[in-house]
Structures are given as C-alpha cells and as structure tokens.
Amino acid sequence: MPANGEAKQTYKLLITRRNAEEILLVASGKHLVLPRIEILRERRVAEQLTTELARIWGLNAYCLFIADPEASGRIEEAQCAVMECAANEKPPEGTYWMAARTAEESCDPEDAGSLRQALSQLASYRDREKSAPFAKPGWLRDLFAWAAEEIAPLGLRLAGKFEQLNASPTFSLVRLETQEGALWFKASGAPNAHELPVTLLLARLFPAYLPRIFGVRRDWTGWLAGEAAGAPLDELTACSAWERAAEDLARLQMESIGRSAELLEGQCKNLRLGEMERQINPFLSRLGEFMRAQEKTSPAPLSGRELASLAEGLRDSMAVLRSFGLPDTLGHLDCNPGNLLVSADRSTFLDWAEACVTHPFVTFEYLRRHMERCAVGEPAAEARLTAAYLGPWESCFSPEELRRAAAAVPPVAVFLHAAQNDTWKTLDPAARPALAAYFRSLGRRMYREAVLAAEGSERCLS
C-alpha cells in the first residue's frame, strides 16, 4: 500500500501502431517484454494509463480495451491494456516497434501468453465492429474527423489535443479541445444504450440544466456536447455551492411537472411510487433468501419479523409521501456530486443513464447523503442544503408538509435504489456472493431508515 493509503495495480501495455500491425516491446535484460505501468486502483483506468504513458514514455496513445484474462483461463499478476498510438511515433529509448506476427516469438515467455490472448481478443472485436466500435484501431481518427465536420458550421475547429477518461469496447468518454473551449464525446453501449435518447430528450426539454448537444453518432450510441461552465460539486466544499445545486435541482424538477408521460416514453425509468409499491413484497421475499444465504454471523441478517416490519414501514412512508400531493417529476438515481457542475449562476446535471420518473424528494435524498460523506464542514450545512432545496417548493406547498415529506423519504430512496432494475430477481447468491452481500447491506440500511422514519412520524403526531 502506498503512503497515501490508496492501493495500486500494475498493468501490462500492449501498445500498437499502424493499424495494430506493430507492437511496442521494451528491452529487459536478455528479453523483450511488454511495457508496464503502475496506477491507482480506485481511479479511472484509461485516464491514468494515457497520462502515465505520456509522462514516462513520451507516447501519445489511447486505450482500446482491457484484455479479459478469464478468456484464456490464465491468472496473472497484472492486467493487460490494449492501446494504440495516436500517430506513428518513434520508439522511446530502450523500446522497439516489432511486427505483431513476430513480437510473440521475441517476447518473454510470460508476456507472450498475454500478447497472444490480447491479440486474439482484438481480432474478435474487429470481426464484430458494430457491437464493439471502440476496440477497433483507428476509431479516434474517425472521431476527430466526424467531430470536425459537426462543429465546422459553427466556426469551431479542433485543436488536436484530447483526454480519454473512460474506455471499453462499447463505452467511451473523451474530451476534445477546440480553439474556443472544449467538447465532450460520450458513448454508452449496452446495457446503457438508452442514455443517448434520454440525454437528447432532456437536453431539448431542459436546456438550462444540461450541456448543449453538437452532434449525434447513433451507430456508436454517442453524442458530442459542449463543456459546461463550473467545477464538479465533489471538488467544492463551500456550502453555498451545494445550496446552489439543491435549489437548481428543485427548479429542474418543477419544470418537469406534467411531463411524466413524455419522460417515460423517452426511456426514463418508471419508479413512480404506485409502481414501486407493487415490488415491495417480491423484493423483500428475495431479500429474505439473500439473508438466509449469509454465512457470517455479523452483522446479523434481518429476520422474517424484521422484513415484515420493513414492508409495513415502506408502505407507510410511501403513503405519507403520497398524502401531500407532490407530483411525480424527473429524477436522477445517480445524483452524486461528480455528476454535477456548479458555477456562480447555474448548475449542470450530467450522466443521465439513471434518469427516472418518481417522487421528487428521492433525488434530493441521494444528494443529501452524498453531502454527508463530503468535506462540507460549515455549521448547519445539512439544514441549509435542505432549506435551499425546499425553498422553490414552498410556492406550492406548506413548509410543514415539505419537512414531513423529506423526513419520510429516506427508506423509500434506499428501496428504489435497490429495486430499480431486475438484478435482484435473477441473482444467485451462491454464484455472486458479493452482490448478495451488497443487497443485504441495503436491506439493513433500509430497515434502519424505516425505523427512524416511523419514530419521526410518531413525534409529529404527538
């Protein structure tokens, strides 16, 4: 473990050029080996690999994919990243470009297996280009050509510099610089292909809260957007920035009132309370199975009686929320501070793969929970955040009703997060014990929140 406490991981790099016809190898004693780079485990892999490769070797490259070691049945100490040089660059000192057909024969025996497996996967991705567009060598050149064509009528031109943040055969996130600011290209393949139509719909309906769209590549399920002003909320510790985000979230949701049918047709998830209440019994039945599969004695699994109490608590909380008559609105199940850009006069909301239609306070609850984990140390920060969010709603509802609704929402927010898709329906806890443990932890948290919500309701009644 490094001194700062962050774990590191080593990656082998299969760096290619000239349409993957040549591979870069490094001289190491009597052998030639694949280059290696050490990066932090909990950070973006593609961003770190490209940055470190430029810093250490002086090579401008981008990542195609991370090779799958399970495909060969090999267990290695380092994963292998397949990359491509953005240009036909000269080899750095102590390295050699070698034809792919002979690189395996010249390579260290251990790395030869990694090389062979990665090249096999690269060939398989080439055969199914449409389903894996970002594993194809040369796709970055195609991106630059397409983006230049899209922005030319606006008087913009690309500056040639780029930053790659995410990479996989079907997903991509790249920042492209222009002579006037920057653009972002994002593509989301299965299971998030719906993010493209959702983003286009929301950008059209609520342009003040999303980046401007400059172009769409439907064959890549990708789009080109302008870079929004502001800094990510997770980099801001001033409570005023969080208040701005909370107030703008409320105003965005109020603008979405009456558009539920349009949002659902546009592929936002249907998490309206009436719909989700029907999922309580089936979900808690499966959760009981996950609890019974727990092998550890601590933390204690929820008992059948506790699960029955939880079911009652969830229904009570949903009934309380419905009683105030707040309308369904646009929701964001991934409303974390990294998906929020805040400037002096606006907030911009990003990454809408988890867009939904539900009770508005559910999304605020996610934002409030994230604030608890961030270093916002100002006095009464949570109370200020809540006041900023409830402020716009007070034009339609009484402050007392809004405070009671906010107190009832925590267990419902956890439940919606846990039950939003069908994972829990098909999960085999023996085959995926870590995921079963995650659902158990959500169940325990849900139970605690339901108890607190019930206690709060009793205090209000008394």
Which structural traits does this protein have?
disordered C terminus; 5-stranded antiparallel beta sheet; 7-stranded mixed beta sheet; Aminoglycoside 3'-phosphotransferase, Chain: A, domain 2; single chain; 15 helices; Nucleoside Triphosphate Pyrophosphohydrolase
Question: Can you describe what's shown?
Answer:
The chain is built from 15 helices and 18 strands. The chain has 462 residues and is of the alpha+beta class. The protein has three domains: 124 residues, Nucleoside Triphosphate Pyrophosphohydrolase, CATH 3.90.79.10; 89 residues, Phosphorylase Kinase, domain 1 (2-Layer Sandwich), CATH 3.30.200; 231 residues, Aminoglycoside phosphotransferase (APH), C-terminal lobe (Aminoglycoside 3'-phosphotransferase, Chain: A, domain 2, Alpha-Beta Complex). The strands form four sheets. Strands 1, 2, 3, 4, 5, 6 and 7 form a seven-stranded mixed sheet that branches. A hairpin with a 4-residue loop joins strand 11 and strand 12. The radius of gyration is 25 Å and the shape is globular. The C terminus is likely disordered.
